[in-house]
Design goal:
By secondary structure, the protein is α/β, with parallel strands linked by helices. It is built from twelve helices and twelve strands. The protein has helices spanning 6-16, 19-26, 33-40, 88-99, 113-119, 135-147, 170-177, 201-209, 231-242, 257-265, 275-281, 287-307, and strands at 45-47, 62-64, 67-69, 73-75, 103-105, 125-129, 153-156, 193-198, 214-217, 247-251, 271-273, 321-323. Strands 4-11-10-9-8-7-6-5 form an eight-stranded parallel β-sheet. Helix 7 (170-177) links the parallel strand 7 (153-156) and strand 8 (193-198). The longest helix has 21 residues, at 287-307. It is globular and about 60 Å long.
């Protein structure tokens, strides 16, 4: 039976994967409130359809950091893709290239950077970095990333300590805690710096002050501090704070094309997809499952744009949404 929506991929992955792998992918911090609220918060937003417009041609393309992507749906950094499919991040990279979108490779990729790049040499890729306390190590890693053709550095800022996770992450925790986060050292690279994990006006203003080129509004998929705002709720505050000076993206809770439209209407330049990519890897030979996940979301987004009267991504704006009183 074909899988028709992202929820179908989630259900299939749960059947296919071991309990420990499923717990790792789906787990959240503490009670999992923020993890679940990331999804629920989108349902508080309603779309305002526009039918009296010519939508015979609808263009989904946009740009991020000056690079063109086929649709504002990209792949967030998640670790250990080999848990879901043997080829792991190599399959993810191939799927991203085929879809014409950006893939942020995680520090905790289960494949080498060289193998990931070789799998999709022409793909648009950014690298997610946990900054090391040792400046020389930072320099060596950044030089390697630059030489391999990565186009931006994504600094994850919300893990000074692992969140309270009620599942077994002993090995991951040991690995992460050896890498204390510091401030991104812009002088070490000419690549754009993107900060991932910003949720507040105050941090967004600091990011602009320190001349970063972008922000990913994110609560780490609800895996760090529970009871913080859903990413889509925090997006408005961050967008208002940066005042158009830098690009803002968002991850967390996107499950439909309508969700993508809502995020862009609230000021996101694009969305990044996390868990659903791993669900896709667990289905139909890895990369083909990821391609199906991306294509389903792309087609849903095309429908959402068409039925709200948007002929291009540039036409998506705040007037297309309203907040439910429920």
């Amino acid at each position: 039976m074909p899988l028709l929506c992202l929820a179908d991929f989630q259900a299939h992955a749960r059947e296919q994967l071991s309990k420990s792998t499923w717990d790792y992918i789906e787990g959240g911090a503490d009670d999992g409130f923020t993890r679940d609220d990331n999804i629920a918060a989108f349902k508080k937003i309603r779309l305002r359809p526009r039918y009296l417009k010519d939508v015979s041609k609808v263009d989904l393309q946009t740009t991020i950091q000056g690079e063109q992507i086929s649709v504002p749906i990209c792949i967030a950094p998640t670790g250990f893709h080999c848990l879901a499919w043997p080829d792991g991040e190599m399959s993810t990279a191939r799927a991203a290239r085929a879809a014409g979108v950006c893939y942020i490779t995680s520090t905790y990729a289960s494949c080498s950077l060289e193998d990931i790049v070789a799998a999709a040499p022409e793909g648009l890729r950014w690298y997610q970095l946990y900054v090391q306390p040792n400046r020389q190590l930072n320099k060596q890693l950044i030089q390697k990333v630059e030489s391999l053709g990565f186009k931006a550095l994504v600094i994850t800022v919300d893990v000074p300590k692992i969140g309270n996770r009620r599942y077994n992450v002993t090995d991951l925790k040991k690995s992460l805690l050896l890498k204390n986060l510091g401030s991104p050292e812009k002088s070490l690279t000419r690549l754009p710096i993107i900060l991932k994990g910003i949720l507040t006006k105050e941090d967004a203003e600091l990011a602009v002050k320190h001349n970063v080129q972008g922000i990913i509004v994110s609560n780490h998929g609800g895996r760090q501090l529970d009871d913080v705002p859903a990413s889509i709720d925090a997006l408005m505050e961050v967008v208002a704070a940066v005042k158009g000076k830098i690009e803002v993206y968002v991850d967390g809770g996107v499950r439909t094309g309508n969700d993508v439209l809502k995020a862009l209407a609230l000021g996101a330049k694009c969305i990044f997809l996390g868990r659903p990519i791993l669900w896709g890897l667990a289905y139909k030979q890895g990369e083909h499952g990821v391609e199906e996940v991306l294509n389903i979301l792309k087609n849903e987004f095309h429908t959402s744009m068409t039925l709200t009267g948007c002929r291009s991504v540039a036409e998506i704006n705040r007037d297309l949404i309203q907040f439910s009183r429920l």
